[in-house]
Amino acid sequence: MTRSSSFPALILRTYPVGEIHLGVRLLTAEQGVVQALAHGARSARGKLRGVVGPFHSGLCYLYSDPVKNSHKITDFDVRSFRTGIREDLDRYCTAALWIESVLAGHAGGSEAAELFALLENCLDILSEIDPPKVPRIEALFLWRFLDILGAQPEPGRCSLCESIIPGAVEASYSSVTGGFVCSRCGGVRPPSLSAGARAYLARSDLLSVEEAVELGLAAESMRELRRLLIHITSEVVEVPLRSVAVTLGLQGDTAQR
To answer: What is the pTM of this model?
Structure first.
């Protein structure tokens, strides 16, 4: 990285450093997650005050010191504030779950550009979406995030015997194989996914996120789907996701068809 550079970035998280500065975790399309310091971002007169905030996207101007291996944000031209996320608790907790998953997954290299595009798109939708559809976009992001990480299970095929799982039956998920198993190989036991939820995933793969979020799924099946996707994501990133309890508690009954 050169000493001065600029690139599109999405702010994942900020945290206080000293009395007037902010530490910032950025997601970029080329480098994945970058950690930088926003000088004076907590100062009343700091030019970065109110500009450097979670979920903001824009053009980041960075000064890097290769000797100290440190990065300083000199300016941030915000293109999207996504105020709709901060104004609604369900949306905020959903975004927080995504950010936590991304940071735990440490995406970088060839995955970074795909993840950057997915998170930008889903945050845009989340900021404007009707409240009953928030659980849908939460599930769609996690499902596609697992695909980027190479850990997305195939909903219609047994991960043990590789046979097709009939579309009208419930299927169990196996943490050992990282996939679904048919009734002959493992029976049906938690965690499992209904036939409707598996069909929902298969159909959503054929659509853009904007199109897929319009697909309906019964409330109980959506709760089941979200819990399983969070369970799988936690296993893949190998850390418990602290946002889980709050997110599921808030959105338990909003996933109507």
So the answer is: 0.90
- Distance, CA of 56 to CA of 23 (rounded, Å): 15
Residues of the chain under the 70 pLDDT cut: 1-2, 107-109, 244-257
pLDDT in tens, 78-125: 999 999 999 999 999 999 999 999 999 875 667 899 999 999 999 999
Q: How far is CA 222 from CA 48, 90, 201, 217, in A?
A: 40, 15, 11, 6
Q: How far apart are the first and last CA of the chain?
A: 48
Q: How far apart are CA 29 and CA 51, in angstroms?
A: 20
In terms of DSSP bridges, do strands 171-174 and 192-193 run parallel, antiparallel, or are they unpaired? antiparallel
Domain ranges of the chain: 4-80, 84-250
Give the CATH fold of the 4-80 domain: OB fold (Dihydrolipoamide Acetyltransferase, E2P) (2.40.50)
